[in-house]
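Sequence of Intraflagellar transport 20 (Muraenolepis orangiensis).
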Amino acid sequence: MANDPLAEAGFHFDDLNKLRVLDPEVGQKTSELKEECKDFVDKIGEFQKIVGGLIELVDELAKEAETEKMKAIGARNLLKSVAKQRDAQQQQLQALISEKEMQLERYRIEYDALSKVEAEQNEFIDQFILQK
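Predicted 3D structure, token representation.
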């Protein structure tokens, strides 16, 4: 009962019979809270490590996705370029075909004219031979 006036004054004895200002029950709860806080901080640290690893992984995947995206854009541009080259080549070949067709028509007309001249000359030769 001698502790009661001390307890009322805010003084308490701990397990080692040392005089304390803090109530032993409050001290115990404070220690428990301190341990819980330490566990919480440790878990937060682990969580931050896991999240940091996840962020690094996502960053790597984003870089790989960007690289693949650039490759795809390059391939698409190359394909467009090849298609344009093919169209240009097709137009060139079509122009060459038109030119060769016109040349063929000129040769056909020239052949017809020469055939006519040949026929006329053969007829002239035949008449000349018959007149002798």
